[in-house]
Amino acid sequence: MGSATLYHLAKRGVKVAGIDRHSPPHDLGSSHGATRITRQAVGEGAAYVPLALRSQQLWRELEAERGVSLFEQCGVLIMTATATATSHHGRPDFTRATLELARQYGIPHEAWEGAAIRQRFPQFRVADDALGYFEPGGGYLYPEACIQAQLDGALERGARIYTDTVIERLEADGQGVRLHSAQSSWRAKRVIVAAGMWSAELLGAPFDRLLRVCRQSLHWFEVADPALFPSDSPSFILAHGSGDSDLFYGFPPLPGENAVKVATEQYTDNTTPIDIDRNLHPGESHQLFSDQVGRWVGALSARTVRSAVCAYTVTPDFGFIVDEHPALPGVTVVSACSGHGFKHSAALGEALAQRMTTGHSDIDLDSFSLARFG
Ligand SMILES: Cc1cc2nc3c(=O)[nH]c(=O)nc-3n(C[C@H](O)[C@H](O)[C@H](O)COP(=O)(O)OP(=O)(O)OC[C@H]3O[C@@H](n4cnc5c(N)ncnc54)[C@H](O)[C@@H]3O)c2cc1C
């Protein structure tokens, strides 16, 4: 969120600085791990669809500007593997909600029953009463490359970047905002805070009451049968029950890699940026494979070739917060993107830059206001 916002502000000629406690792209926050799914019909709700569509255009523009590859449009397949109702990111019946939005927005797609899914993509062992939504316009992004390209584009346009600099405190001073690190301080007319899982500790109330950090783990399982799981497979989300964790998602093998990245989600164990356990324990991969992946996906072996830990920062309704800080005039907060933010980040950065420079954005961000939490 920070690199996108910096880039779009710099593009508009704003005198802007980006400050980060680490050196992005890094693997200590929520934007690492090689890939992120992007979808056009966003089952989390209609308010996200314009952001996803605009972001896809912006990634393509950024690719052309920087001469890099950011977005693989391999399609996305969302499956309800049995007739059981499913939930994803707080939305019940996620596959049907996605289908309805695709129809509403005229997004190209196909709806399949179980046999059609198995025929087209035999690596998925779904039941006959499964429901599949296939969207050819979806796929995946390379998050680290997206961040780097935006930082490079911002630097080239005169933005300043301060890395390894922790902002400890923000203070409104009437005309602007003061930012304090242990060593120095800055004054800015406006500040946009995109601090991911550190947001609550930096922003205080009411964010400390609204945001939870949930540790997530990523697992790269070896492909045992490459013919059954080719690299032109779609990204996928497979739900097979009604619990938040009765679901996993994954990606095709990346070029040159004989492994498929897969992850589930958990929302029960909360942590903090300090306490988060960044080590992945062998039992975690084994459990994901035996409980979920091995049962529903063929062609993969239980051997993990790589793993990583990441964090979701979630709000009570699993939606975004993009709003002004109620107690700090001049401070806008974007983040807490509840585990589904990356695909929208380019358009959010653009919308925030529009808001800062013109007072309004082309895409309506009202659905992400704090007011909904009372
Ligand atoms: C495992 C996993 C899988 C995901 N899958 C998807 C997906 O498939 N599709 C999708 O769209 N989204 C996905 N998401 C969500 C998406 O990746 C995140 O919503 C998004 O990347 C979060 O970006 P952010 O900028 O809010 O946070 P971050 O990338 O964590 O950035 C926050 C930055 O703020 C800096 N910072 C924090 N505090 C301070 C401070 N006090 N001073 C200075 N700097 C500070 C940090 O160093 C960091 O660089 C996934 C997330 C995870 C964890």
TrEMBL record:
GO terms for molecular function: N-methyl-L-amino-acid oxidase activity. The lineage of its organism: Bacteria, Pseudomonadati, Pseudomonadota, Gammaproteobacteria, Pseudomonadales. Keywords: FAD, Flavoprotein, Oxidoreductase. Gene3D superfamilies: D-Amino Acid Oxidase, subunit A, domain 2 (3.30.9.10), FAD/NAD(P)-binding domain (3.50.50.60). It comes from Pseudomonas benzopyrenica. It holds the Pfam family DAO. InterPro entries: FAD-dep_OxRdtase, FAD/NAD-bd_sf, MTOX. It is an enzyme of class 1 (oxidoreductase). It comes from the Bacteria. Signal peptide: none annotated. This is N-methyl-L-tryptophan oxidase. Its EC number is 1.5.3.2. NCBIfam families: PRK11259.1. Residues 1-355 form the FAD dependent oxidoreductase domain. The keyword Disulfide bond does not apply. Its cofactor is FAD.
